[in-house]
Amino acid sequence: MIRDAMNAKPVLDLFKTKLSVINLGLESFAANLVREGANAVHVDWRTPAGGNAKAIAALDAIEAGTAVDVEKANAEAVRRILAAEPTVVGIGLALDVVPGMARDLILHAGPPVTWGKMCGPMRGAVIGGIMYEGLAGNPEEAAALAASGKIRFDPCHHHDSVGPMAGVMTASMPVWIVENKAFGNKAYCTLNEGLGKVLRYGAYSGEVLDKLRWMRDELAPILAAALKLHGPIDMKSLIAQVLQMGDEGHNRNRAGTSIIIRELAPHLVMLDYPKDKLSKALAFMNANDHFFLNLTMPSAKCSVDAAAGIEGSTIITTMARNGTEFGIKLSGLPGRWFTGPAGVVDGLYLPGFGPEHAARDIGDSVITETSGIGGFAMAAAPAIVKFVGGSPKDAIDVTMRMYEICDAESLSYRIPVLDFRGTPTGIDVRKVVETGILPAINTGIAHKDPGVGMVGAGLVKPPENAFRDALVAFAEKYARK
Amino acid sequence: MIRDAMNAKPVLDLFKTKLSVINLGLESFAANLVREGANAVHVDWRTPAGGNAKAIAALDAIEAGTAVDVEKANAEAVRRILAAEPTVVGIGLALDVVPGMARDLILHAGPPVTWGKMCGPMRGAVIGGIMYEGLAGNPEEAAALAASGKIRFDPCHHHDSVGPMAGVMTASMPVWIVENKAFGNKAYCTLNEGLGKVLRYGAYSGEVLDKLRWMRDELAPILAAALKLHGPIDMKSLIAQVLQMGDEGHNRNRAGTSIIIRELAPHLVMLDYPKDKLSKALAFMNANDHFFLNLTMPSAKCSVDAAAGIEGSTIITTMARNGTEFGIKLSGLPGRWFTGPAGVVDGLYLPGFGPEHAARDIGDSVITETSGIGGFAMAAAPAIVKFVGGSPKDAIDVTMRMYEICDAESLSYRIPVLDFRGTPTGIDVRKVVETGILPAINTGIAHKDPGVGMVGAGLVKPPENAFRDALVAFAEKYARK
């Protein structure tokens, strides 16, 4: 009708007829028409890839034909993610169980980063880690050692591991061992330290290190022994359950922590330890609702790792942040990081803190979103908005948006309020770039300075260019022309 | 327009004009018109009180004027319910702590009922209770004793108590003691027996009685000692939390049971008991997701009891069923039961069972709905539909309907998915009768024969006449004319 009007009649005649308008672009145009009594529908349409010429060319090139069938490759990738069977099989010392771990090696969250480029909380956690290992006697010595080149740094992700926030793992830290029983691969993660002053938020005072030593010397052996009596823990079943109990698997973990305590308690009480030590272990878990996070993280890690390295797949198998950069990896481009600047978190702050105190987005915990829970399952956890901000409707909207960038829906992780629909799973970088819909990540916020700790929690947008660069690289490798 | 058409023009002319129809009554009339392209709106209107003349007269009489200000009385009743502070303060033997308890007395669920009129599962539970107390050596002797008149029967509700399903409480059973700290009144409830063959569903075999003895001799003393170390448990806070975790406080109790375990475990492990006995207590709770129900029930009971006996109040302070009859009490008519036949539960059955095996609606657990949780909070627990039937949307609809018959909304018990709206609280019998909207109750289903047990769970409608009779009696006492 618009074309007819433009060609055949004076344009102004158009406004004398009764209009039925389909509006693209600015939504307010449609709203104004509706307010004037016209019949107008707004279509949420955007230029593909935000109009970015290189990204559009890459999408076109992949669409035109690839050396390997992308759809088939992605179907295999999501099949593996959905078939994962993450299972807690034990607790060990990092040096004993984590591949490639060494006394002079410090693992950290996110893509690779040098000491010189590390953000405040990661530097704080490295300083703490060096002192915890007895490699330095005070923070100044530790910082000097970190800067000397005598300590090696490597991402947790390069060692089948993940770490929350700063994600620092050192040789003598105890770690959860989670095995993907469907594929045989394993993932590792430190034990959650609780709230308050903790290493993962960059705190390294005496009390922080004392707690880490207690975790190594008492908590971990007690939990390892209780786990042995209990037998392996089916994390797929537990995560499925907690999504029916108001957790989303990343920042709300009250149900998960409760279930792990009730599962282990009958066995823990049987151990030959002084009962005050057993009580302290139980009280520590009870006082820390994030205790379960360090189990969902390696569960998510070993689930998506099984889908890495599939020729021709555009599925994202890693997302991670080091506080300086956010990085992703694609299944079809194994070993390559695509990065952009870490984002600023939009969220709720603890009393006395505000955005001016915030470090940038940090941590491997976004592995939960990569596997289809966390921010992707926010609709299951409406109460989380009290922690990260927004309304319950926002939480549902976030999950609904994520379906648009995923290739599949979980068969096990289901959202009651969406009629038990499976969570959006298998992020396809083509869809992210084409729609401009970025993965929704909810996260804690660390203080930007070393040694302080947590200041809030909220939602963060990853940098779009990381996804575009990955897509362009994928097209370069796989597109026929 | 309709009147104009009827008076001034031949009726058939009506159908030549473009109709805008407001439809009352059968919804299908409006649906047909819409299907034919007409503009029709359906209004969900019903005759007040279903057209029942006595009920309408009672509503009119109360509306015309009462000796006591009903609105003021109800405001005080809901103020007390909302201000309740249910707190677990201990565990004791019924004979020692329950008012009026005696060795020859058996308490049961629901309004008063004689042995001759008891349903199968309640008879089974009475037989089991008599044998548990050592008053008879076998089921035949126990039944004869029950029929002999030498055993007295009384509702739990007449002794500040509540009991799930058959609700049988005998002298030497351990009970939770819950105190309403805001008003000083207390309520009592037995400990939950778990699933499978249990007394509350009318089973009375040796294993049922053995478990009851273990609960009395080991479980209760262990929990009582752990509770003493822990200190009183603030049930208002816990119930508020579990509504954020997918429980509704009646038939879904996984979150509540998890929280009570994690709260008690650090103290339980400190007790001077052989560790296998402590482990057995923890394992028993872990294996029984309804463990928390027997804490929410007395919490609800002591919350609404504080609102009983307010002159001129039409708020319902008791609903209860004995498997034969369903009964209610009004705040303004203390001591009087209004009853109707217990309903047939519409629900999901365990494999091998169907409606033909079901006993009628039974148990005091509907005290949860009376206090504003349970069925009234179903929107908080979408996953419950896997247990009681229906869809998550049905669960939300149930809660929304209950707002129409309540005078208030909870200040503490909030439903995340409804933007943290407080649960509908304070059922006003006037609203129930006027709208014909009956309180929504979700419940377990017992086998109709003694000795079998649970066969399913579902939703049940209470009998409308109990509410009408209560309203008529209220009008007789309070209406001026």
Radius of gyration of chain A: 24 Å
- Flag low-confidence runs of chain A: 1-6
Structural class of the secondary structure composition of chain A? Answer: alpha+beta
Mean pLDDT over all positions of chain A: 93
Q: What oligomeric state do these chains adopt?
A: homodimer
CATH topology value of the largest domain in chain A: Enterococcus faecalis V583 fold
Give the name of the CATH architecture of the largest domain in chain A: Alpha-Beta Complex
Which two chains form the greatest contact, residue counts included? A-B, 39 and 38 residues
What is the 3D shape of chain A?
globular
Q: What is the β-strand count of chain A?
A: 17
Report the total helices of chain A. Answer: 17
Under CATH, the homologous superfamily of the largest domain in chain A reads Enterococcus faecalis V583 domain
Distance between the termini of chain A: 39 Å
CATH class of the largest domain in chain A: Alpha Beta
In words, what does this structure look like?
The structure is a homodimer of 481-residue chains. The first copy, chain A, has 481 residues and is of the alpha+beta class. Chain A has three domains: 2-45, no CATH class; 53-81 and 304-478, v583 fold; 86-298, Enterococcus faecalis V583 domain (Enterococcus faecalis V583 fold, Alpha-Beta Complex), CATH 3.90.1710. Chain A is 38% helix and 19% strand. Chain A is built from 17 helices and 17 strands. Chain A has helices at 2-8, 27-35, 53-64, 70-83, 94-97, 120-132, 139-148, 206-230, 235-242, 254-268, 275-286, 293-305, 367-370, 385-388, 392-403, 429-435, 464-478, and strands at 20-23, 39-42, 86-93, 105-108, 152-155, 174-180, 186-190, 233-234, 316-322, 325-330, 338-341, 346-349, 362-363, 406-415, 421-427, 441-446, 454-460. In chain A, the strands form six sheets. The first copy, chain A, has a four-stranded antiparallel beta sheet with strand order 7-6-3-8. In chain A, strands 11-10-9-13 form a four-stranded antiparallel beta sheet. In chain A, strand 10 and strand 11 (338-341) form a beta hairpin. In chain A, helix 3 runs parallel beside helix 17, helix 9 (235-242) crosses helix 10 and helix 10 (254-268) packs antiparallel against helix 11 (275-286). The longest helix of chain A is centred in the middle third of the chain and has 25 residues, at 206-230. Chain A starts with a helix and ends with a helix. In chain A, 56% of the residues are buried.
